[in-house]
Please model this.
Amino acid sequence: MNLDNIEIEILSEHHDISGFSCGIKEIDEFIYEEAMDFQNERLGVTYLFFYEKRLIGFVTLSMADLRKRKMNEEDKLPIGKENYPALQISQLAVCNDLQEKHGIGTYICDFCHAQSLGHSEKIGCRFLVLNAIQKAIGFYDKYGFKLLPKQEGRKEPIMFLNIMDKKTVDKIP
Model:
């Protein structure tokens, strides 16, 4: 699969998303039943990723913040704000049969990272945040996201990425 041939579109009423499944009921229900309403209410924007006209993944982005007091000392910025502006990955999914060894999830994360960098230049944004499902924590960790401390027992722990960290900025295509 040549990732250079992926086309990205913002979800609209005309898109046929009926054949998409990531294998996780709650996420599939979101794209089918909630994403358009979520977008119409300006709570987030859903981006669809197509390869040869097939929907292979999506991500919903919204604004958020990251509480400084919940972070480890080494992750805090020297400037004294209580909350840091962030872009939130509200939902991210890759088609069930393409989830491994194709790089689609990484491609979508790169897209989100690039979006956050664009926001940082226009309105201020320093972090990319998400609530990770348990089976995706390893993937996000490999990408460079960190878990907030003290989240034992949380079903979907909060993870964050400092978008200005040189290790992650340098790998964005």
User: Anything to note?
Assistant: The chain has four helices and seven strands. The chain has a mean pLDDT of 90. The first strand starts at residue 6 and ends at 10. The chain has one domain: 3-169.
